Amino acid sequence: MTEEADRLWAALADPTRQRLVDLILAADGATATALARDVPITRQGIAKHLAVLERAGLVEASRAGREVRFAVRRDRLDQATGHMARVLENWDRRLATIKDLAEAEHDAQG
Amino acid sequence: MVPDRISREVVIDAPPDVVWSIVTEPRHVARWFSDEADIDLRPGGAMLLTWHGHGAYQARVETVDPPRTFTFRWLRRENNEPREGTSTLVEFTLAPEGSGTRLRVVESGFQQLSWAEEERARYADENSRGWIRELDELVDYIAAR
């Protein structure tokens, strides 16, 4: 149903990865080495999180001299937050329907 | 930015036992959730939720504590066995409020979605790609000297 969107969500729902995305956005692109200065985990740990983000299409890598530079893909980030908004809307709609059904049932029993 | 769990609630002007029946009985579930619903209402019981035009999705009942708690694990893909990593957990909590009910729903487990099975399959691939990168860097480094 929403496998692709779920994958985006899964990639972003981790606090460390959220922090990395924030940092990359703020710096307008960053290398793993630069990120390692701002996040209290190893460069290897950061590389692993970046791989998850890259696989979900949330960041893209490009060569920058001897290092790999990561940039956030805004379109994919918007897609992820849009998906979350829709999931929330769906629950609001379902709860509203449950309320209507329960109140009608209660009145009928009344 | 994007949380692992979401929570919504509503206050209903009907007592918990009425709300409980709406939340758990298949004929009602088929009105507020899916288009068709089969529910074996006991822990471990199977649920089949069908959306016309989208397909049938399996879920598994986890907790049945009337009229307070109803939880199920909802598979996010068609025709598969619900388990951690491919499903989210939906928890309904009913609390009396005056002569009515405060109904809360929490959906959680988004963080693990999709990764459990893929992680394993792609791990080797990622690992070798990582090494190629490191080697590239080494080659560049040596060339620059």
Description:
The complex is a heterodimer of chains A (110) and B (145). Chain A has helices spanning 3-12, 15-27, 32-36, 43-55, 74-109; strands at 30-31, 59-64, 67-72. The model of chain A has no long low-confidence stretch (mean pLDDT 90). Chain A is elongated and about 75 Å long. With 110 residues, chain A is α+β, with helices and mostly antiparallel strands. In chain A, 70% of the residues lie in helices and 13% in strands. With 145 residues, chain B is α+β, with helices and mostly antiparallel strands. Chain B contains three helices and seven strands. In chain B, a hairpin with a 3-residue loop joins strand 3 and strand 4 (55-65). Chain B is globular and about 75 Å long. The A-B interface holds A 1-3, 6-7, 9-10, 12-14, 18, 21-22, 47, 51-52, 55, 65-68, 80-81, 84, 87-88, 91-92, 94-99, 101-103, 105-106, 109 and B 1-4, 6, 8-10, 12-15, 18-19, 21-23, 28, 31-33, 51, 54-55, 57, 76-78, 101, 103, 105, 107, 110-115, 122, 126, 130, 133, 137, 140-141, 144.
Order of helices and strands of chain A: HHEHHEEH
Relative helix content of chain B: 25-40%
Query: How many whole angstroms does the radius of gyration of chain B measure?
Result: 22 Å
Number of strands of chain B: 7
Could you list the spans of chain A in which at least 5 consecutive residues all have pLDDT below 50?
Answer: none
Determine the structural class of chain B based on helices, strands and strand pairing: alpha+beta
Task: Give the N-terminus to C-terminus distance of chain A in angstroms.
Answer: 40 Å
Secondary-structure element series of chain B: EHHEEEEEEH
Assign an overall shape of chain B.
globular
Let me know the largest β-sheet of chain A: 3 strands, antiparallel
Q: pLDDT average of chain B, as an integer?
A: 81
For the termini of chain B, the CA-CA separation is: 44 Å
**Structural category of chain A:** alpha+beta
Poorly predicted regions of chain B are: 116-124
Strand portion of chain B, in percent?
A: 35-45%
Please, what is the oligomeric state?
heterodimer
